[in-house]
Target: FAD binding domain-containing protein
Amino acid sequence: MWLSKRFKVAALLTSWAANALCSSSDVGFLSPHKNTTCYPKLNVEELAARLSPHAEIYEPGSDGFIEGTLRWSAYHAPTVSLVVVPRNEEDVAETIKFANEFKSPFFAVNTGHGTITSQRKMRRGIEIWLDELRTVDISEDGKTAVVGGGALTKTVAETLFAAGKQAVTGFCECVGLLGASLGGGLSILQGKHGLAIDQFVSLRTVLADGSITTIDEDSELFWAMKGAGHNFGIVVSATYKIHDVEHQNWAFTAFTYAGEAVEDIFQALNDNFRADQQPADVVIAVAFELLPQVDPENPVIIVLVIQEGKDALDPVFAEVFTNLNPLATQTEIMPFDKLPIVLYANLEAGPCQRVGLNYFRHPQSIKEYNVASQRELYELFTDTIRAVPALNGSQILIDHFPTQGVQAIASESAAYPHRDKNIYFAPTIAYMPDGPELDKEAMKFSSRIREIVHKGTGEDKRSAYVNYAFGDESLPELFGEPWRIERLRELKEKYDPYGRFNFYAPIE
Ligand SMILES: Cc1cc2nc3c(=O)[nH]c(=O)nc-3n(C[C@H](O)[C@H](O)[C@H](O)COP(=O)(O)OP(=O)(O)OC[C@H]3O[C@@H](n4cnc5c(N)ncnc54)[C@H](O)[C@@H]3O)c2cc1C
Model:
């Protein structure tokens, strides 16, 4: 399917000569060339000569370029002039060195599920597409696995499960394990084992100057890679702790409610599933969404509850939700590797499709629901999708996850600052782009959700999981206390002084 590198070089040279433009509006390479408005003329033939024989280079218009630059969200997407597909760590290193020599921005991409708007600062740069770095190798003692920097959640989960093992992976099969892990890595297994970052043993990483290094607990960068990793390098492979599969099956029940139940649902969640009550093996996710087959006009609230090692939810948990008179209840038993099917997070499901929609979120992490705020959210959702039907594919998603494993790890041990939060609001605004007026409505809707949720916390400060962030959050919202930000800034100055990794929640 892929066109070969050698085949493409001649065409590339022509296209790059035409692309070596000066622009009055866009900013080219970042500091120390911050003020340049000219794009460099790249000697692509030279780049090709530096890469290993099977590495690929794709030019605009080619099938490989189109596939490699497809993104989950079209909103504020980075723009790319060249896609390089490395086959090994040296290819990544050589591409970075080449980009630095030619003063070209560069950016790692795996699945393109990242949505933060800082990515838009990537203008006509070199995309390092990690698609071919997808191996998963289990160590002989079965305690760790080395995972390629471009491995999908699905590949990792399925490969390990077939060997009776599990890693702390996310919900969604199509998300990159490293992309998610570098910001923290929320998982249905976090109640038992902690976040994905807590599983890092070592990270084989290419730094901003193109040097290759192994970052582990003896390295000062290890702390920063655990929560702010996008700022410091491209991880070509990572060694993760893995765990024996204790239970093959999980019980799954989806309870669907009408809007009248809002107060009861969130009061019940507050009363029965506070962080100190929620068992490590029970995971809850809530969605406000329009489900036309149930009610074509009013959004429903769906509460998904899954429990490890059971054929049915423990009655004590099931009763909490059946007592609230759901409109519908769906129950399944699923093995761990098939859970994404019922969670609507498998490769074939809507959240994994890249079809040109705009998606964005204004997230907020909290510890407890404000029931009145939840009612306000429901009314806002209903009013908005009635007034602007183009937004009716949006969802207010809430991950309500167990935290025993997360809180068992000292907060100071990682840059990730939100171990005290167990409820992650990820309101996902979704719509087909249709001009600035719709963008404005979508933005108004999304930011209003954040305002309501934040006001409901009664706290001064907002707090956002970096992997769900919109892009307008402050550093304290994303990275927490002043000491963390100071330490991140010092490391940034030392390891990425020219801000080459400044396209994802940059520490500036
Ligand atoms: C449908 C959906 C489901 C999600 N589910 C979860 C979940 O269950 N848990 C969770 O924690 N998050 C989840 N997220 C958020 C997810 O963690 C982020 O969107 C993440 O940025 C996706 O990473 P990616 O590699 O798939 O995407 P990309 O857009 O390819 O990458 C995102 C960022 O990560 C960087 N990156 C990717 N790989 C590497 C690497 N090897 N080395 C260095 N940088 C790298 C890229 O440069 C970019 O800055 C979900 C998001 C979506 C859209």
Observations:
- The CA atoms of residues 224 and 415 lie 5 Å apart.
- The chain has three domains: 5-131, 136-245+488-495, 249-472.
- The chain has a mean pLDDT of 92.
